[in-house]
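Hi support team,

I submitted a single chain yesterday and got back a structure, but I'm not sure I'm reading the token output correctly. Could someone confirm the output below corresponds to the sequence I sent? I've pasted both exactly as they appear in my results page.

Thanks,
R.
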Amino acid sequence: MSKSRKIDMVILGLLAHENLTGYDIKKRIDSSISFFWKGSFGSIYPSLSAMEQEGLVCKVSDAPEKQGREKIWYEITDAGREALIMWLQETKATNDLKYETLLKIFFGGVADTSVTLATIEEFERETRETLQIFWLYKANLERVLDNRDHVCYYLTVTFGIETYESYLRWCEKAKALLKKYE
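Hi R., thanks for writing in. Yes, this is the structure output for that exact sequence:
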């Protein structure tokens, strides 16, 4: 593979489980890994095209739909599976965090304390909502831990739970500290 794009690995990982259309890939990203990885149609389709040229995926046509449109399905090739496995074997990973919330808090001294408190409260609200989703995923996955893939999914969900519970503890401490400056 000429250039290791992480979106390529996301796509290959999803295709390792089932053939998908570009639209289905986006739906899978949004429904399963968007809590820690994002993907847009603007990155998915160019990546699929490049990986097809590299022989990592191939198109599989489907019968025309009712409107006469043909769905284009993609499947991982042996070379694609090998590239995915090679990437998985690289134990060093980039774990960049970009939180606009923290950026706003970092520069929050410029505005009134109430502005920073509102930013933290919104982050806290979103964190609680996401945590509820994680708990639902965890409960569902606990019923199917006899499958190694499900165990791996479970590990990412429990990481999310631990992380988001930590975020909530931080929010409480941050609000208490900032309230001294109201």
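A quick pointer for reading it: The chain has a mean pLDDT of 92. Let us know if anything else looks off.

Best,
Support desk
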